[in-house]
Amino acid sequence: MAASHYAVIAEENEDEAETRLLVAARRKIQLRNVVLMGIIFMLLSSASQTCSTVETIVINSVHDQYFNGTSTMGYNLLAVLNGVIAGSVWISQTIVSNIGPKNGMLIGAICYAIFVSAFIRPLKGTLYAGTIILGLGQALLWTSEGTFLSINSDPETIGRNSALFWALYQTSLLWGNLFFFYKLHGHETIDSTDRYWIFGALLVLAILGALVILLLKYPLPKTISPTASIASQDEGVKSRSILESIASSFRLIKTKRILLLSWTFMYIALEQTFWSNVYDSSLGYTKAFGTTVTQSLVGLSGVVVGIGEILGSITFGFLDARFPRMGRDPIIISGFLLHVLAIFFVFLNIPNDAPLGDTFTDAYIRPNFYLALLCSALFGFGDSAFNTQLYSFLGEVYVADSVPVFALFQFIWVLTLVPRQVT
Asked: CA-CA distance, 141 to 107, in Å (whole number)?
């Protein structure tokens, strides 16, 4: 009896040791994937987000026999982009469910590269075509990202992984915008040579991002004790048709949790579009900063937003690991208060007519270069508070089937913006 009892204990200990080794091996692959995914999105967004940030200024600088840019065409392209994303979210959900998030990200990355290439020689037709292709790719890429992040996380690591991914991703605001600032510092206009250099470099970044996707691996399959809190390779991805995809998302929107989260989705959409497009364009059009400063200030503002995003992600990731009982509410509230402060400073510092074109007027105060950059930092820090906590929450709660909820997030995000941009 005693011998058999000790044999059972030894076998249980061996199983536990094997389980710990498998969990450690799986989490090593998961962490590698999260880091790689952060690098992928850093490269892709260094290209596409820099394009979106500066497109209004760049388009307005092109006037030749082939194309005559306007000061508001960038806003029109943004409206088209979000309209396409809203319509393609359901298709992207079906594609990701059937081909997997890795392949979904690869297709999305190719779409990003096509979009960036349209700015090397701007033409009205290619700009709109590139924007439509980007809309299809962006819906696919971000639906895949949320799903892949869920697959590579568990309740113990989702907070850390979300903060790590967001910090790496937001470094994209540094590289493209630093290059833009460097190339245009002291320039009053953007000539064709500058444009070739800027968008040629951004195209290289987009291609590198697509190549890094090939290095991603799915985590180890679930072959261990069912009590271990890790996810299987197939969790988060369920094959479904377009109608099934739409039905699954609309079943979610009827739930109390998603109805409440929808307000957060909409707020994130509005604040991100404000600082990434309207605010940066307004800085470029506010000539009171100095005619040799305004063009490069657009890129510098993007860099400062990126610094705020990175510092915020590191701070909130540390708080999540160090004080897990604190919860998400204080972080969300702090992010909102920072945004309120930033918007108040923008109200004081930027002229009312700045979003529409060049202006030499003052706001309530004389436009101040350093106050403008402080606002950029506040926008970035506050945005990281919302996004790190949102991705952490969605990845933890919807790990069993994450594709519909991330597709729904994208749909509500763009649906919030289209009516405002069309008008």
From this structure: 8
CA distance 203 to 123: 17
**What's the chain's Rg over C-alpha atoms?**
23
Structure tokens at 52: 């979106």
Q: Which amino acid is at 350?
A: I
Q: What are the distances in angstroms from CA 133 to CA 14, 309, 372? A: 53, 27, 33
Phi-psi region of 160 (alpha: psi -120 to 50; beta: other; left: phi over 0): alpha
Distance of CA 122 to the CA centre of its chain: 25
Tokens matching residue 32: 């590698």
218 DSSP 8-state letter: P
Paired tokens of 19: 């389980």
Q: Do 283 and 372 touch, CB atoms closer than 8 A? A: yes
What three-state secondary structure class fits 58? helix
One digit per residue, the tens of pLDDT, for the chain of length 423 reads 555 555 555 555 555 666 677 777 777 888 899 999 999 999 998 888 777 767 777 787 777 777 887 767 777 887 888 788 878 877 887 888 888 889 999 999 999 999 999 888 888 888 899 999 999 998 899 888 888 888 888 877 787 888 888 888 888 877 766 776 676 666 556 777 778 888 888 899 999 999 999 999 876 554 444 444 444 444 545 566 667 777 777 788 888 888 888 888 889 888 888 887 788 778 878 877 776 666 667 778 888 888 898 898 888 877 776 766 677 788 889 999 999 999 999 999 888 888 777 778 888 888 888 898 999 999 999 999 898 888 888 877 877 777 778 778 878 877 776 554 444
Q: Is residue 113 classed as helix, strand or coil in its secondary structure?
A: helix
Closest CA to 384 of 313, 334, 317, 314: 313
Q: Give the largest Cα separation in the chain, rounded.
A: 95
Up-side HSE of residue 322: CA atoms within 13 Å toward CB? 6
**How far from chain centre, in Å, is Cα 209?**
14
